[in-house]
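ligand=iron/sulfur cluster
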Amino acid sequence: MMQKRACVYTVGCRLNQAESGIIEDKLRDAGYVIVPFGNEADVGIINTCTVTREADAKCRQAVRSFIRKNPMAYTAVVGCYSQLAFKTLAEIRGVDLIIGTQEKLNVVNYITDKKNPIPVVVRDTIQRDDFTIDASGYTQIQERTNLKIQDGCDFMCAFCAIPFARGRARSRQFRNTLEEARQLVDRGVREIILTGVNIGMYRSENYTLCDVVDALAAIPGLTRIRVSSIEPTTIPEGLLDRMVAYDHPLVPFLHIPAQSGSNRILELMKRRYSREDFLEFIQLAVNKVPDLCIGTDLMVGFPGETDEDFWATYTLLKESPIAYAHVFKYSERRNTAASRMVDKVSNAVQDKRSALLRELSSEKRSAFHEKFVGRIRTVLFESEVGDGLWCGHTDNYITVLAKWKDGKANTFVPVRIQKLSGDHVIGSIENRNVQ
Ligand code: SF4
């Protein structure tokens, strides 16, 4: 009998990517073969995001395109957009199953052999307790793998729908987290990226984020631990100490969303810090941690943002040691506090402001990369991207391309950084100490 084919399409953040990996593994355990999205399949799962209007549109488009190509296939839509916009999704002809946040990782248990005449909707109350994930079936491993340790958020920033889509903050049980980390390392993972919605708030029993990082550090064979996006005000100073410690695998990298450089806007956004607090922390961090890369998220066009507010954001990026910024345009989300604010910023102004910030971000990235030209840095190589050309990352998240005859994925190699090239650098392999 032919093995059934399934594909998973992910819209959105690193946490969604981590969860899609878990869903794929559960599909394999259930006997499916995973095929790329776009191929013919018997089952299609679209793991959705609702962070902006564009994300919503991308989800609907992915659902429609899967159904068009596979009209007889079983179509399931899961995740944040399903949680909030289940009615809109139910109107798309051909959708069989809509699952919100609580049950999304169990989607495989809901799939049936027959298509449903009307979509089944599963939108359970999102639990608040610590959670576990049965990830024993992990089969598809990459050298850098996301590990989900936390979900949901209690912060209720004025622009954000995530607390509605993913529920309140909750943490993955400490032992269950370590169990999966050990399995990943046993299967060859060299770098683990800790992911969640608000990972600085990790609390399971009495364990904190620093405890997770230390417990992972004790796993033999795990060479790098990376913390993904983390909210200002939630970063324990102990994290910086670990980045500096010679024998600790926590890498010198932080992605801290500032969102705005204007105190007036930060207050309207209900963020929990001022421009000065943010700048003080990142200055402390770069003084303490050599070669630290700090990235940020910046939003333009929040309701009421004046030119003056925007320039405050611009100077925050320009004058601080931030290495790069991801720039987003404000997107109105239903039921959020910001959606009730009246003083909207036009699309044209938003476009202009985001273009200015993007340009500045690429200048800042180049200036950061420039500091490493001529120096040797260890690179974890991931894949061959062209004829003998390999791509990988340094610990402080510089993307490196290097010619490497007989290259091998999942290998740490010392590389001399030679020159800048767009948003990455070109390096040459130093033929020593290949690990
Ligand atoms: S911290 Fe704010 S922006 Fe981030 S998920 Fe929570 S509510 Fe949203």
